[in-house]
Amino acid sequence: MNNIFDEIRAAIFTVWHRRWLALAVAWAVCLLGWLVVGMIPNSYESKARIFVKLEDVLSDVTGVPTSNKRDIERVQQTLTSSVNLEKVIRGTEIGAGITDPKQMEGAIAGLGKKIKIESTKDNLFEITASYGDGGRSDAANAKIAQAVVQKLIDIFREENLAGNKGEVSSSLDFMDQQLAQRQKELEAAEQKRLAFEAANPALAKGGTSPIQRVEALRAELRGIDADLAAAQSALAAINGQLAGTPKTLAGTSAGGARGALSDAQAQLNSLRARGLTENHPDVIAARNQVNMLKQAAAGESGPAGQPNPAYASLESIKAERQANVQALTARRAAVQAELSQVTAQQFSNPEALAEQQRINRDYDVLKQQYDKLLQDREELRLRGQVETEHSSVKFQVIDPPSTPRSPVAPNRPLLLFGVLIAGLGAGAAAAFAVGQLRSTFATTAKLERTLGLPVLGAVSQTLTDGARALRRKRLTWFYAATAALGGVFVLLLSLEMIQRSMVA
């Protein structure tokens, strides 16, 4: 511990013994450092916050999606592009002295590093710009920083609210050109198909191919077969009802044999309608009874009876159903004949069939492309009207560009103080280093450790009155020079504060 204390005492003595050297080095370092700090231009920062509300009620009704959010993201990403930064430079005082394209490129590169755009929330954006130029005053730099942010807001508003109109218009013009071209191709394909149908009337059936016609005829034939089966079943049912219904009704003056004959005939017809054969015992018994009643009824006199209205009604229904069955049968024969004809054509003229399929395929492809392009054109036109007339995008500046009151960089007071500390430290280090190069000993303890011999005593310095007066004068000069160094530091701080107050 004593050795460390002695070393500290020796270092302090060495520095104090060469205090003028230390003060000179401190002055040199401080002046040079303060000059460098003074040459650093102040950089002023301006901020602004904007709010963009995305809401479109009409798009929910029409089903046509708008691209507002996508456009805002695009503007956010491209706001600091070279084109927009050039607009900012030419719209502010930054571009006042720029006449060379290389100067413009350098200004764009420098300004791009000083602009920051952040999306703090979904619809809230923060724009920050800083600017500092040593060739301009601090007030001018602060004004330019604020103007840069305002120009960026103007570009944001222009790109967001009016940037899509030109794009939609140019897109509509392009799609109109494509539609006109597709329409000419479609008309040419239509004329080619009409010419083929005129040359091959047997294959021309509404523009459909033979394969499609075969499938349609087969489907129609299956439907006719189903309808014919149902009509035949209905005719069989009405025949059964007619078999069980008597043609005449017995009169009031008729004998009992005739009425019994009518009942017996009705019973016999009912048994036959049930599907019983002539050899069935019930049928044989009913037939024998009818024969016996016929003989008995033949011997009776009087009216034969009245026509049965139900039987006449069933007869009309039977005639209608027979006509339906005949019509379906004729229709089936016609469809079957046409199907056979189309099938025969497929095998008799395969080249014409292939040509027709190719023509119809080309026409269908062009028709689908034309319809799809027309639908896209209408959707784009509707979207342009929605975004232009009914879009409820709300652009609002929450915080306008702030007016810089103090520079954000550099922290000049701290740098000035740091230079002062560095100067004093450099002076002390220089004095200590010079002392180490000289072969002198500051204390008797160091001399004893170096030589390895005991030191019996030391002779103190004795000064005359004149020497003491000179020493006091030199100390006064040293203190004055040191105070002057501190005074320069305070003066520089005062000038910095005054300069900031002038900007504010």
Could you characterize the architecture of this molecule?
The chain has 504 residues and is of the alpha+beta class. Among the domains are: 2-40 and 410-503, no CATH class; 44-166 and 391-399, Bacterial polysaccharide co-polymerase-like. Helices cover 72% and strands 7% of the residues. The strands form two sheets. A four-stranded antiparallel β-sheet has the order 2-3-1-6. It has a two-stranded antiparallel ribbon with strand order 4-5. It is rod-shaped, with a radius of gyration of 58 Å.
Number of helices: 16
What are the secondary-structure elements, in order, as H or E?
Answer: HHEHHHHEEHHHEHHEHHEHHH
Mean pLDDT: 75
Number of strands: 6
Helix proportion range: over 70%
Structural shape: rod-shaped
Proportion of residues in extended strands? 5-15%
Assembly level: single chain
Largest sheet composition: 4 strands, antiparallel
Strand order of the largest sheet: 2-3-1-6
| Amino- and carboxy-terminal Cα gap | 55 Å
Protein structure class: alpha+beta
Short structural summary:
This protein is α+β, with helices and mostly antiparallel strands and 504 residues long. It has 16 helices and six strands. α2 runs antiparallel to α14, α8 packs antiparallel against α13 and α10 packs antiparallel against α11.
